[in-house]
Amino acid sequence: MTVNTTVTVRVPAKVNLQLAVGPGREDGFHDLVNVFHAVSLFDEVTVKEARSRRPSPPGGGGSVVAELTAGGGLGSHLSRVPLDASNLAARAAVLVAERTGKGFPVTVHLDKNIPVAGGMAGGSADAAAALVACDRLWGAGLSREALLDCAAELGSDVPFALVGSTAVGTGRGEVLSPMASPGRFRWVFALSPHGLSTARVFREYDRIRPDAPPPSLDPALAGALALGDPAAVGAALTNDLQEAALSLLPELERTLGTGRGAGALGALVSGSGPTCAFLVGGGPEDAAVVAEREASVVAALEGSGLCEQVVTAHGDVPGAVVL
Ligand SMILES: C[C@@](CO)(OP(=O)(O)O)[C@H](O)COP(=O)(O)OP(=O)(O)OC[C@H]1O[C@@H](n2ccc(N)nc2=O)[C@H](O)[C@@H]1O
Ligand SMILES: Nc1ncnc2c1ncn2[C@@H]1O[C@H](COP(=O)(O)OP(=O)(O)O)[C@@H](O)[C@H]1O
């Protein structure tokens, strides 16, 4: 049997097709109905046996992570990625070692394309990828259930990054049920030069909506997804955190308006933002019509001067996979 000394895992970003947020809970979280949709913006996480198996310095990621590096095409976003023990990929490696009693020092490299602090779960994606990569590299043999359990411990969005496709998350978002959708959708994402802290956006939500009702799945969205109807999905996109994100970064309203004005079928802030997501077509629509609409939305956003970067992607796609 060959022993792998390097494992690379590819993992997608997510956009939230519905994000319904209930009142704050005693544990500091909020109950959600969170319709996750995985899209083809990928980070790649590579774990490699560290050359010298010397323990990492204090605060360097625990004894299993010797060094953490990051690269990718994200411009200013990369400077927001912590390269110490607080990085979610490092925390994932440490958790696998703790849970299984296996593990040796590794280097972790993050090839990042998912916006950082952008509401697309990039850090969560890297955590999910590192769980899978370390499990494979160390032959730890974690079951699917054990991996999902580790994922939920690391963050509310991490289990979905393992699973991918389209799924509804309840609880704080970590309890997943798959949602079948026959349609493949095309998306445009407007990346902001700014980041938004998820916790800060939830706090702003509490301030604006102190009497939030319990969250529930929107039947219009569920029906539109079941049919794979892009116009109906576009019309049903909702995000309870959007008002809070706009309150913290008012210029996002103009970004949303620019994409809508250029013909997007639906527009919303992704998760806690500030990335704005535009559904531009898919399903049974003519590919040429979709391509034209997509080009119009991309051109309008690029010309607006409001975005750091404009990227296109499709969904849904599978969760973390070993390459
Ligand atoms: C808002 C969402 C929507 O998918 O995504 P992002 O916009 O961050 O990508 C998620 O709920 C984010 O999940 P994740 O980023 O994993 O958050 P966590 O690490 O679990 O929590 C960070 C903080 O967000 C708040 N939080 C998170 C989840 C939740 N259900 N209720 C909360 O109130 C809490 O203040 C918590 O301390
Ligand atoms: N691997 C990682 N990639 C990106 N950010 C990370 C990572 N690990 C920890 N972080 C921290 O988590 C914060 C939230 O990052 P991210 O998951 O990209 O955003 P969001 O929660 O909005 O989807 C960042 O500002 C950064 O400080």
Question: If you had to describe this structure to a student in words, what would you say it looks like?
Answer:
This protein is of the alpha+beta class and 323 residues long. The chain folds into two domains: 6-176, Ribosomal Protein S5, domain 2 (2-Layer Sandwich), CATH 3.30.230.10; 180-315, GHMP kinase, C-terminal domain (Alpha-Beta Plaits, 2-Layer Sandwich), CATH 3.30.70.890. It contains ten helices and twelve strands. The strands form two sheets. Strands 1, 2, 3, 4, 5, 6, 8 and 12 form an eight-stranded mixed sheet that branches. The protein has a four-stranded antiparallel sheet with strand order 9-10-7-11, with helices on both faces. Helix 2 runs antiparallel to helix 3, helix 5 (198-208) packs across helix 8 and helix 9 packs antiparallel against helix 10. The chain starts with 5 loop residues before the first strand and ends with a strand. The model is unreliable at 56-61 (pLDDT under 50). Adenosine-5'-diphosphate binds at residues 80-82, 87-89, 110, 116-124, 126, 195, 198, 271-272.
The set of bound ligands, ions and cofactors reads:
4-diphosphocytidyl-2-C-methyl-D-erythritol 2-phosphate, adenosine-5'-diphosphate
In CATH, the topology of the largest domain is named Ribosomal Protein S5, domain 2
How many strands?
A: 12
- Rg from alpha-carbon coordinates: 19 Å
What best-fitting shape do the alpha-carbon axes yield?
globular
Overall average pLDDT? 94
Task: Report the sheet-strand fraction.
Answer: 25-35%
CATH architecture of the largest domain: 2-Layer Sandwich
| Low-pLDDT ranges | 56-61
Major sheet, described briefly?
Answer: 8 strands, mixed
List the domain count as a whole number: 2
Number of helices: 10
End-to-end distance, in Å?
A: 18 Å
Helix content: 25-40%
Q: How would you classify the helix and strand content by structural class?
A: alpha+beta
| Strand/helix succession | EEEHEHHHEEEHHHEHHEEHEE
**CATH class annotation of the largest domain:** Alpha Beta
Function: Catalyzes the phosphorylation of the position 2 hydroxy group of 4-diphosphocytidyl-2C-methyl-D-erythritol.
Family: Belongs to the GHMP kinase family. IspE subfamily.
Protein name: 4-diphosphocytidyl-2-C-methyl-D-erythritol kinase
Domain GHMP kinase C-terminal: 223-282
